[in-house]
Design the sequence.
C-alpha cells in the first residue's frame, strides 16, 4: 500500500487517514475534484493500489434507462446516505444501441446500426469508449462479461448463431480480440438464456443465470466458472406455482438470492441460498407490495392490474438491506422488505434492468488499442 506523510497539514488530520479513510470512500466525481487540491493527493489517488481500494468501496448501483425520441439515457440509482435517492446520468445511447452487460465498472454495449450487431465497451467513470472488433459471419449475442482471474483479462461470453442451428456455439472472447479463445459448445439451456436476455449474477467467481423449466415450479441455476470457464447446473428453490414468476437474482452479504412474484407482481418472495455447497434454499421474506399507495401516486385509482404489468427487480440497498424496485406505468418505486414504500421517481418511459454499475477510475490499457477510442465523446457528450 502506498503511504503518505504522517504530518497533518496545518493541524488537520494525518494525511494517511485523509487518503485511506476518507478519499478512498468518495464517489468518482468527488475524488476527481479532490485531485486538484495538491500534487501529493493527485499522485497517491492515481496509484494502482489506491484505485483498487477505491473501486472495492464503491456500491453496486442499479441501472435503469429512460427512453426518449432518438435513444435512451442510462441512469444509476444511488440511494447511499441519508439524502433522498437520486438517478445519476451514466451514458446516452442512440436508437441503434443497447446495454448488454456490466463488469467492474465497464459496460458492454451492442450497436445494431450497421445491420450486423457490433460490440463496444465504455467506462462511465473515466468517460472512455471504444468499439470492439467485428465478429463476421455470425449474429453475436452477449451472455455476460467477466474478469478472468488467472490472466486479468476482461472476457465476453458470446453466443454465435447462424441460420443452421447445428452450428450454434458459445465462445469466449477477450476484449479487443477478433478470434475466440475457446469454443465451449452449446447447451439446451442456452436457448432460453439467449431468447429471454437473462442477466447473470457474479458470485464466488462464477456467473449465475436462473432458468425456469417449462411451466413447472422447479428452478435451475446455470453456473459458469470464470476461472475454469466451464458450465455446470445447480438446483434452484422450489417455488409455489402461485409465486412462480422470476423477478431477478442478486448477491448480498456473501449470500446468493432469488426473487419471485405472483402473476400480478403484487406478492414478492425472497429466497436465500443458506448452503451453497449443498444447494439449500430457504424462503426469507414474503410480502405484499403497497399497491394501493402505488396506484394513488400514479393517479390510477381505477387502474386494473394485468399479468406482467408490474416489473420488479430486487437489489441490495446498502446497510445489509434489500430493496425492491417496481415499475408501474411511468413511475419507479423503491420498497423495503416490510412492504413499505421508501422512494418514488416519476419520469416518463423509465424502465428497469437487472444490471448494476460498480464504478472504477482504473485506466485499462486495452482502451487506447481499440478502434474508435475516444474520451468525453458520445455516448458521454
Sequence:
Amino acid at each position: 500500500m502506498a503511504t503518505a506523510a504522517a504530518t497533518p497539514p496545518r493541524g488537520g488530520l494525518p494525511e494517511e487517514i485523509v487518503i485511506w479513510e476518507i478519499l478512498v470512500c468518495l464517489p468518482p466525481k468527488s475524488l476527481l475534484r479532490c485531485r486538484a487540491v495538491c500534487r501529493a493527493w493527485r499522485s497517491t489517488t492515481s496509484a494502482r493500489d489506491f484505485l483498487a481500494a477505491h473501486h472495492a468501496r464503491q456500491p453496486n448501483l442499479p441501472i435503469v434507462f429512460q427512453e426518449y425520441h432518438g435513444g435512451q439515457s442510462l441512469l444509476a440509482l444511488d440511494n447511499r446516505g441519508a439524502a433522498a435517492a437520486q438517478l445519476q446520468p451514466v451514458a446516452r445511447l442512440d436508437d441503434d444501441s443497447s446495454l448488454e452487460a456490466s463488469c467492474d465498472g465497464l459496460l458492454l454495449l451492442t450497436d445494431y446500426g450497421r445491420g450486423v450487431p457490433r460490440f463496444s465497451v465504455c467506462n462511465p467513470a473515466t468517460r472512455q469508449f471504444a468499439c470492439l472488433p467485428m465478429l463476421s459471419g455470425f449474429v453475436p449475442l452477449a451472455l455476460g462479461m467477466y474478469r478472468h482471474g488467472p490472466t486479468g483479462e476482461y472476457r465476453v461470453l458470446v453466443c454465435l448463431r447462424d441460420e443452421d442451428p447445428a452450428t450454434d456455439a458459445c465462445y469466449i472472447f477477450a476484449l479487443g480480440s477478433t478470434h475466440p479463445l475457446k469454443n465451449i459448445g452449446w447447451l439446451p439451456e442456452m436457448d432460453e438464456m439467449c431468447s429471454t436476455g437473462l442477466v447473470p449474477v457474479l458470485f464466488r467467481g462464477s456467473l449465475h443465470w436462473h432458468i425456469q423449466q417449462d411451466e413447472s415450479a422447479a428452478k435451475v441455476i446455470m453456473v459458469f466458472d470464470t476461472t475454469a470457464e466451464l458450465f455446470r447446473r445447480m438446483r434452484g428453490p422450489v417455488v409455489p406455482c402461485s409465486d412462480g414468476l422470476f423477478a431477478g437474482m442478486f448477491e448480498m452479504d456473501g449470500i446468493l438470492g432469488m426473487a419471485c412474484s405472483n402473476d400480478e407482481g403484487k406478492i414478492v418472495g425472497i429466497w436465500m441460498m443458506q448452503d451453497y455447497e449443498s444447494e439449500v434454499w430457504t424462503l426469507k421474506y414474503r410480502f405484499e407490495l403497497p399497491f394501493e399507495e402505488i396506484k394513488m401516486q400514479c393517479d390510477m385509482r381505477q387502474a386494473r392490474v394485468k399479468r406482467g404489468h408490474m416489473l420488479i427487480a430486487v437489489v441490495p440497498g446498502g446497510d445489509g438491506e434489500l430493496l425492491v424496485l417496481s415499475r408501474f406505468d411511468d413511475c419507479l418505486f423503491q420498497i423495503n422488505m416490510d412492504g413499505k414504500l421508501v422512494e418514488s421517481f416519476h419520469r416518463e418511459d423509465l424502465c428497469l434492468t437487472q444490471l448494476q454499475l460498480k464504478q472504477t477510475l482504473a485506466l485499462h490499457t486495452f482502451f487506447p488499442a481499440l478502434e474508435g477510442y475516444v474520451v468525453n465523446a458520445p455516448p458521454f457528450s
Q: What stands out?
A: The two ends are 35 Å apart (CA to CA). DSSP finds six helices and 25 strands in the chain.
